[in-house]
Amino acid sequence: MELHKWSGHIDKAMAYVASLPNSRLIYLMNGQDAVLMYETEGAALLPEVDAYQILDASGDINAGYFAVFNNIPVTEEGKERFEERFQNRARKIEDEPGFKAIRVLRPLNSDTYVILTLWEDEQSFKNWQQSNAYGSAHAKRGTDEGIDKVPNIFPRPSYVTTFIR
């Protein structure tokens, strides 16, 4: 299964949505920026999409109204270790109030993995960031055991983008 993500101006996104009325496109926005995404086992519905293989999935991505894309560039030599870290994740996020879905996404046309989480609202996401589950999931960050301290895995800093539905 793959997830395809198109990014661009909201006007272009609305035109795509109008031209594909029976598709299951998820429309997200942040100011004038928009994202259209969908899960598929087939060909791309839209031109110029970022395509990802879904490595891990929980929840229904159609249920969330606040989307968080944690974009993490990973070197070729770091992919196996990075994927192993997420395959062995604690899975406590699923029990958090307001959590709707998570997708761990391997890039098919770039080096940037995406950890996509969807939430009932922005406050639910912020509450999770202050929770024990978040602390547990990120407990090794910055320590000798943390993947962030392993050389040659991350070619540049990660970044987060957020959108609302």
From TrEMBL:
Record keywords: Monooxygenase, Oxidoreductase
Gene Ontology molecular function: any one: monooxygenase activity
UniProt key word Oxidoreductase: yes
Residues covered by the ABM domain: 66-154
Superkingdom, natural source: Bacteria
Protein name according to UniProt: Antibiotic biosynthesis monooxygenase
Organism: Planococcus halotolerans
